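SUBJECT: A protein chain and its fold
Encoding: whole-number codes for local backbone shapes
Chain under study, with its fold:
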Amino acid sequence: MPLLRRSPSAHHAEPGTLRARRAPLGLAVLLLLASRWALAQTAANPSPAVLPPVVVTATRVEAAPFDVPASIDRVDGDAVRNDRAQVNISESLGAVPGLLARDRQNYAQDVQISVRGFGARASFGLRGVRVYVDGIPATFPDGQGQITNVDLGSVERIEVLRGPSSALYGNSAGGVIQVFTEDGASTPTVDFGIAAGSNGVLRENTKLSGSTGAIGYVLSASHFQTDGYRDHSAAERNIANAKLTVHLDDASTLTVIANSVALPKAQDPLGLTRALYNTDPRGVDPAATAFNTRKSIDQTQAGLIWERRLDSANALRVMVYSGHRNTEQFQAITLGAQANPLSPGGVIALGSDYRGTDMRWTLRSSLAERPFTLVAGLAADTLDQLRQGYLNFVGTAPNVVQGVAGALRRDENDSALDVDEYVQATWQFAPDWSASAGLRHSSVRIESKDHFITASNGDDSGGTSFGATLPVFGLMYALNSSVHFYATAGRGFETPTLNELAYRPTGATGLNFGLQPATSDNLELGVKTRLADIGELSAAVFDTRTQNEIVTLTNVGGRSTYQNAGATQRTGLELGWTNTYADYLRAQAAFSTLNATYRNAFVTCNLSPCPVSSQQTVAAGNSMPGVARESLYAALGWAPPQGWRGGVDGRFLSRVFVNDTNSDAAPGFFVASANLGYVALFGPWKLSGFTRVDNLFDRRYAGSVIVNEGNSRFFEPAPGRTWLAGVSGTLSF
């Protein structure tokens, strides 16, 4: 095999990496200056209120994160909202080690989120990471997820579970993100806010919350629009959420949740080649404007959660949900490719009906006179999807009009069904020792019924089934009340999604039923400490070995085909630290290092179908693309209940390879942000205002990459220095 030559573009990445390594010194100076200013403000502010204990429920049993034998982090609602745009969930997840959330500045493709490398290959939406909102899956049964239906203005907390314990959530659980919205408080309040900033950003939000008798309520809505940092990247989005909590009696609660999201306009600027990225990062590939690439989404969803305490030891929980989602996407597929009678065209129209249930029994008791908890449940989810494809043009040469839906070229009903049984237990078998174990069996069935049958395009109906049994075991040792050690091992399971099955590598029509699930063996060792002088510090090392890894075979014009590529390995270290000084001065830091590599060689391609002349060999030992080897986040914030507040934060990310052959990479970078605000209380009113500056030093960098893009349009540039200012008010009745 010939040796890979180092391309000039890959060499060009090194100076940016060197500058990024020097930049944390500037952040240290900013943090020092901010801490001296904040300490000087302490005397002018009242004593802090006593807060309720911090707990998480991502393990299905309410517990303090410190007592859970797993890597789990909680981000509170104030951290999501205070002095932030409240547009993308990526804004508030920087302090979570091992999680990489990247704002693509492309609302046609959603935020990129990966956990320990899982999900990094997603070209749109979320995959490899399971997402829940108020206990309702935002991940379809095939493993494809999205996070567009969350109104950040009503978030109470976000929990992130990483490592082997994630497997207890079944298919595609390389990590688990759970978003919980607020419950209605006893005092009715009305909230409103508006923020505006660079690139035509405008966000407006309002919220009504409170309770009357046995009913608590939270109603929220938000509107967002932007002209976009790049050409052809304007977007508009509207979200509405409603949550009612009804206390039926002393032992029963019914929660009703409904939300909707409308994305009527989201232009897709596509990625940029290295040459365009270097010369005009605000520009757009000509194909995007020629085909008017864009996406629109309309989704409504509702769910019910009934919880009943049967007695002091037993409890039941039943959740049901249903929703509908319409998606229309215009792609940049060449006219020649669309003219092929087997081509599904350049416009994708998806109508998705989804529903599901999760029934769970919880026992809190004792075993051998030691605390014992048992959870057993059954979950089932279905997805019925109408997939249609149209030409992205009308007319014939020379009178062709592009960017409009033309003739029908694909018409099928696809479905996915998963049925999972699970059981998990925790037992504190000795004063200083506790053990946890779980088992989940997942069954996934995917079927397709073809309705587009012609002389050259036969019936491609078919189906396939996947299944796996996923064990997890954890052990925790409490050295004392301030230091806990733990070890966890488990097996994970990731099926191909309907979108990954949608196209066959040969160019033939129908789903790619030859694609198989990936399985992962996971091991994690960790320590958690909380000391008065140091704060809370956690450290975890992990090793994940995957068989049948699902990787990109081709990715051209926004259309990807996939294959199984043997074995991969992910090893890494995660450190997280937080501490509070002088009541209101909070410092945070998160460091991650991840070595994600292919253990077997395989072949990839930049054309579809893939002729031998276009095949490229990916060598064993190559790094997995879309994954940063090192990341560092640090923040310092002063946030009293009234008066001046402010903060600084910074993020370093090492270079990220853009393809499996590792022929090019997005350079490493360091960026910093600063914010300043003021909160005033006037009787029942709470008024606040803020301003923030992102990318303080005006660095040029790629905010995200499109992995293995066949036209070499890998790079999605991040904005330069931007500003945002906002005001908000709360009236308590």
User: Anything to note?
Assistant: The first helix runs from residue 8 to 22. The chain is about 10% helix and 55% strand.
